[in-house]
Amino acid sequence: MAQQNYPNRPVQEEQIDLREELEKYSKHWPWFVFGVIACVILAFIYLKVTTPSYHTIASIIIKDEESKSPSSEMAAFADLGLLGGMGTNSIENEIGILKSKRMMTNVVKALNLNVTYYDEDAIKSPELYRNTPYYVQVLNLDEKILSTYSKESANTYRIILTDNSVELINSETEEKFKGKPGQPIELPFADALVIENPEFEIPEDGIPNTIVKFSNLESVVSNYRSKLQINLTDKNSSLIELGMDDSVKAKAQDILDQLVFEYNREAIEDKNLVARNTADFIDERLQIINTELDSIETDKEEFKETNRLTDIEAESEMFIENASDFNKRQQEIETQLELANTMLEYLKSDERADLLPANLGIEDQAVNTSIQNYNELVLERNRILSGSTEKNPVVQRLNSQISQIRSNVLESFERLRSNLRVSKNELDRQGSVINSRIAAVPSKERQYRGIERQQNIKESLYLFLLQKREENSLSLAVTAPKAKIVDRAYSSVVPISPKPKIILLAALIIGLLIPFLVIYLKHLLSNKVKSREDLEKAAKEIPVVGEIPRVNKKESEMIMKNDRSILAEAFRILHTNLQYLIITKADKDRGNTIFVTSTIKGEGKTLVSFNLAATLANTGKKVLLVGADLRNPQLQRFEKDARQHAGVSDYLANDELKLNGLIRESSYENDNLEILPSGTIPPNPSELWRRKKTEEMFKDLEKMYDYVIVDTAPSLLVTDTFLINKYADLTLYVVRAGHTAKKLIQFAVDSNNDGKFHDLSFVLNDVKWSNFGYGNKYGYTYGEEKKSFIKWLQNKAAAV
Predict the structure, then answer these.
(1) Which range is the signal sequence, renumbered to this chain (predicted)?
(2) Of 124, 506, 620, 723, which is most buried, counting CB atoms within 10 Å of its CB?
(3) How far apart are CA 500 and CA 487, in angstroms?
């Protein structure tokens, strides 16, 4: 028996071939086309059903109240000490106020944003906002009950309005609530009043079916706070840009404009707070001084009546003229001392950290500055307390500063009173000198002078407070807003989202990426042999002599005479490759024996054996197909009565049987092909193969036939194939694509290296059309009639 040791191919280092890597994906191009088309269609649907969102912007300048100049619009009042009080906070603090929950809550309440309206019949269901045929006024809203209904999606109602009745139908439960126009309708969480929108213009297709949705105030406030964008255009400026993204332009514009309005309103209220407290203090002092002045005037009148005095001033005209400057200064000191005593009494009697009266006419600038700083801190603390608690670290820090400055103010007034007392004592000393000069004046004149002096002091103080009250009233009337509007809210013409170009580009990328990832992961996670490339990488030293394509269920697994199918062409190529592996010596007068085996069952070794035998028989060679799988014979798939006849096992077990009597003609339409069935399944196949009769059988068969094709048992499961492989001229090892695990190929490599196989070669079976190696998929259809493009595309997709 001639044997040829096929030289091992040199093992080459693995190199990444970019073209091969691309072919892994390009052969699945129908999936990429489908992915792109599907994603683009979904993108168009998304763009069609998604409500566009627009960007709305408003700009304001925060005025710096301390940087007043003579040319400013408020310069006329600056010299009067008006418009004082609240100083300028940092821009960051003002931005924090604009972002505050309290400010947005005021906006939501003012615009009634927790009640929204939708068109029930619209595809995108856009919010109607002011373009709604009806408005719903909410009375006595219970937030807790509404929260429960919102969780159950039972907070939306359809509005049905007729001439005599109004119906609110719950969209979730279909519960109806009826009422009359202009009268409240009792809902589970509120009383609702439905009124018609007088500005609504009825469209040509009629009044839309309106749905009203009631939302929790907290959730609406939180939603719009998250949408609000506030940016400082430059660090060195006070220009602030407000922004908001929303699907309804008018709504976003109203929110930003209302936010600026609420900010200015609060700022004006803060400014007027000091003025109101000052007005209250002045009114209180005017009542006290008026009472004191009445008492002094009464005493003066009684003094004159009792002493029958007419014109005492004419009698002491000379002394009065000399003492006029002294009296004027003494009155000023008395006035300042009275104001200082009054403020000290006010500070000591009222321990609350409240605003102090300002602009009372105290001449000491240090005292006025301390009062102004104290009032600024009190206003800042009160503003923070409106949205926080006493435990806030900022509030505690401000309370500490307020307490310290209050102590400083108290000390300043104590020091001022002490200085005024010293000045008064000095004036009293000077007065004693003057009094000595008028000693000759009767004591009645001196008493009258004292009464008149007290009257003048009270009158001056009374007139001074009246003037300050008018000035304070003027400051209340001319308070200017803190935020100057640069640009009222306006919206972009082009929607900022969704952006069609970006969406379509993303759809294109995703359409390509999804098939790519699927294919990549499929290759990455696959542990099966799928192509010639996988097989050659796993066993580089063993040649691959054939690739058998996958056969569809509707197609025959058997090769017929004059067959031009892809399956027949694959076996013809296998036959051609075998010619280079089987080299018959010149002195050999016997046929060639080809063993066909596999790792496990189900890999198609019987299919390969039968069709290889048929292919060889079609060339005019005499071929015998031997069923050597004694444990699980499968020739009956192609020869229906193969199991009913005696065969190899019977021949090996019974010395009386002859080979010629066991060989059967094949039902295949070819006289050159005969079958030697496996015979009866024996209990000891291995022992039968070890008999000397086995060698005799193969020698006799080689004398009788040109080719002996032996369908053996799987090599990994039993040792039968190894026992008889020494009789083979060539061993074909069948690997099934998509079925055989890559790690099982190592078993064939190790067995070949150990010498258990003779001239081993691989045959890759059940290969998908897209996984064929070089040459095969290009040549199988040569000479066939060309199919239409649609038919070709269907076949291509089926192969993928």
Answers:
(1) none
(2) 723
(3) 29
Residues 6 or more apart whose CB falls under 8 angstroms from that of 150 comprise: 214, 215, 216, 219
Distance CA 19, CA 14 (A): 14
Structure tokens at 674: 């005969």
Report which DSSP code applies to 150: H
The answer to whether the CB of 771 falls within 8 A of the CB of 531 is yes
**Tokens encoding 405:** 């400055």
Residue 322, pLDDT above cutoff 60: no
C-alpha angle 157-161-162 in degrees, rounded to nearest 5? 155
* Residue 616 Ramachandran class (φ > 0 left, ψ -120 to 50 alpha, else beta): alpha
Are 107 and 259 a contacting pair, CB within 8 Å?
yes
Indicate the DSSP class of residue 339.
Answer: H
595 and 744, same domain (yes or no): yes
Over residues 102-123, the pLDDT tens digits come to: 999 999 999 999 999 888 776 6
Residues whose CB falls within 8 Å of the CB of residue 770, separated by 6 or more in sequence, listed in order: 27, 28, 799, 800
The answer to the question of residue 530 being in a domain is no
Distance CA 643, CA 522 (A): 41
Domain carrying residue 209: 115-215
Q: Work out how many domains the chain is built from and give that number.
A: 4
**% of the chain surpassing 70 pLDDT:** 84
SS3 of 182-246: the string is CCCEECCCCEEEEEECCCCCCCCCCCCCEEEEECCHHHHHHHHHHHCEEEECCCCCCEEEEEEEE
Distance CA 312, CA 296 (A): 18
Estimate the crossing angle of helix 324-349 against helix 443-477, to 10 degrees.
60
Q: Are 614 and 745 found together in one domain?
A: yes
| Residue of higher predicted confidence among 472 and 160 | 160
Let me know if residue 223 belongs to a domain: no
Please, is 593 exposed, middle or buried when counting C-beta atoms within 10 Å of its C-beta (0-12, 13-18, 19+)? buried
Q: Which of 150, 181, 215 is the last residue of a domain?
A: 215
The torsion angles phi and psi of 604, rounded to 5 degrees, stand at 95, 25
d(CA 124, CA 50): 6
Compute the distance between CA of residue 343 and CA of residue 294 in angstroms, rounded to an integer: 23
Q: Dihedral of CA 290/291/297/301: which sign?
A: positive
Same domain, yes or no, for 632 and 759? yes
pLDDT class of 72 with cuts at 50, 70, 90:
very low
pLDDT in tens, 279-305: 888 888 888 888 888 888 887 777 777
767 and 549 in contact (C-beta within 8 Å)? yes
Answer yes or no: do 678 and 795 share one domain: yes
Which residues are paired to 210 by β-bridges? 119
* Contact yes or no for 720/649 (Cβ under 8 A): no
The CA distance from 394 to 389, in Å, is: 10
490's tokens: 């306006």
Helix (H, G, I), strand (E, B) or coil at 591: coil
Phi and psi dihedrals of 325, rounded to 5?
Answer: -65, -40
Cα distance between residue 535 and residue 538, in whole Å: 5
Which of 248, 160, 153 has its CA nearest to residue 208? 160
For residue 565, give the CATH number of its domain. 3.40.50.300
Domain-located, residue 91? no
Is 331 a member of any domain?
yes
Please report which confidence band the pLDDT of residue 9 belongs to, taking 50, 70 and 90 as the band edges.
Answer: very low
Instruction: Determine the residue type at 501.
Output: K
- Reading the block at residue 423, the tokens are 């000045």
User: What is the distance between the alpha carbons of residues 25 and 32, in angstroms, rounded to a whole number?
Assistant: 9
Helix (H) or strand (E) holding 390: none
**Is residue 587's pLDDT more than 50?**
no
DSSP 82-127: -S-SSPPPPHHHHHHHHH-HHHHHHHHHHHTTTEEEEETT-SS--B
